[in-house]
Write a structure and sequence with these properties.
Radius of gyration: 16 Å
Distance between the termini: 34 Å
Mean pLDDT: 89
Shape: elongated
Structural class: mainly alpha
Strand order of the largest sheet: 1-2
Strand content: 5-15%
Length: about 70
């Protein structure tokens, strides 16, 4: 079974996820935000995204605000 929890920042997604994980050791919380942030640190992904979207790297990093816009 896969349960997806979505909502705006500060709405309690992590709180409910952590609560569910505390109920059963077989429940896994995969934080997609963390996965996305780590992916943006990978050199080949940074290069492809910046080239595809025409974004400039600042201090070797993609500006996530600019990416979001």
């Amino acid at each position: 079974m896969l349960i997806t929890i979505t909502g705006p920042s500060g709405s309690g997604k992590s709180t409910i996820s952590n609560y569910l994980c505390s109920l059963n050791k077989n429940i896994v919380h995969l934080n997609i935000d963390s996965v996305g942030h780590k992916a943006l640190e990978m050199p080949n992904i940074k290069k492809r995204i910046s080239k595809k979207l025409g974004l400039q790297l600042k201090d070797g990093k993609i500006n996530r605000k600019e990416l979001g816009d």
